[in-house]
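Sharing a chain and its predicted structure for anyone who wants a worked example. Both blocks are below, sequence first, tokens second.
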Amino acid sequence: QVQLVESGGGRVQPGGSLRLSCAASGSIFSINEMGWYRRAPGENLDLVATITTSGNTNHADSAKGRFTISRDNARNTVYLQMNNLQPEDTAVYYCTARIKTLRAVEYRSWGQGTQVTVSS
């Protein structure tokens, strides 16, 4: 069984910064793509950013220039540095990873979500 555990959410004022972390643990053989999605109240789940094992990144237009995704392959951890946060960034942020288990089963795993609230 594989778990993704997120941390780093919270409440900040507009213009502030937060750094989200997500660590994968369990019966992991390898991890391909990792990423972050978010769901604002009453909205759909939206892509924030993804990153491949080799470090190629893809950021949503709403994240470009403000958010940066990175990962530490040795620690099976993905990060999301969020700067200049705005009220419209308020959402539950979910970590995801494409996992290959020790039994060669491949699937997408999701974290439980971490709340980010941007408010003055």
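Comments welcome. The two ends are 40 Å apart (CA to CA).
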